[in-house]
Design a protein that fits this description.
By secondary structure, the protein is mostly helical. The protein has 13 helices and no strands. Helix 3 runs parallel beside helix 5, helix 4 crosses helix 6 and helix 9 packs antiparallel against helix 13. It comes from Anisodus acutangulus. One of its GO terms (cellular component) is membrane.
């Protein structure tokens, strides 16, 4: 199985460049694929425009993607006054931005998760983050299935080989393995989203692993959003206790897979 997987991957990579190396002189996307990308971006832009136009006239210069805790606190302070009176618009705007960031692998969703906790509390915040993160991951999955193959081979050839080998070994207990990846930082979530359709992870497995697997980290982050003003850095979110807990949960989820492989 491993030989077949390796051979298949090498053949696909040769199609992108000689000797398994991607040909950098050729743009990895066709005009059709760029068109699909453009349609998706336009859909998100129109959604945000609708939210903006239905909000009251005001100075919205504070509206930008937060890149640090200071930006996030400024955004939180302004949005608090709108959330009670324009709850639907704020929710829709939040969802569109979060899903957009997940779809196109834009860093900073951790700040969006903190914002959910600060604006909506723990339980509603966790539900909101799980919904938007799953929707964004699913959007990224299907977009990658359509146009992502050349980009994945170009950006992560070695990591893709490892991921494909692991998926091939665990076909009978793939859900446990995907849960393990979601709970622990073994592989980046952005890579899992975009590479899963390339290595033939079924969508139903991808979906359930995402919904269940992101709950622990979402809870930790959203709960920290309640005390946003006390945070000094993003590193304060994950102390040794939180990291150890996540790894313990991940070990429990992957144990059935390990036992099955041993048998």
């Amino acid at each position: 199985m491993e030989g077949e997987v390796g051979t298949s991957l090498k053949c696909e990579m040769k199609g992108n460049g000689k000797g398994g190396v991607v040909n950098e002189s050729k743009f990895p996307l066709s005009f059709w694929e760029i068109g699909v990308f453009g349609v998706v971006v336009l859909s998100y832009a129109l959604s945000l425009a609708f939210v903006y136009l239905t909000m009251p006239a005001s100075d919205y210069s504070f509206l930008k993607l937060p890149r640090n805790l200071q930006d996030l606190q400024i955004l939180r302070d302004h949005l608090e006054s709108y959330t009670s009176d324009y709850t639907i618009q704020v929710l829709v705007g939040y969802c569109v931005v979060y899903i957009f960031m997940q779809t196109f692998m834009i860093p900073g969703t951790v700040f969006m998760s903190l914002l959910a906790g600060s604006l909506f509390g723990v339980f509603r915040g966790v539900a909101l983050v799980v919904f938007t993160a799953t929707a964004g991951a699913s959007s990224c999955y299907f977009l990658s299935k359509l146009i992502g193959r050349p980009l994945v081979f170009s950006l992560w050839p070695d990591k893709l080989t490892f991921f494909r080998d692991q998926v091939a070994r665990r076909k009978t207990r793939l859900l446990n393995y995907m849960l393990f990846l979601r709970v622990t930082p073994t592989l980046p979530n952005t890579f899992i989203n975009v590479a899963s359709p390339i290595v033939d992870v079924p969508y139903h497995t991808f979906f359930f692993a995402t919904v269940i697997g992101i709950i622990p980290a979402a809870y930790v982050t959203v709960r920290a959003g309640i005390i946003l003003g006390e945070l000094q850095s993003v590193g304060d979110l994950y102390d040794m206790h939180s990291i150890a807990t996540l790894f313990l949960i991940g070990l429990v989820t992957v144990t059935p897979t390990l036992i099955g492989n041993k048998n």
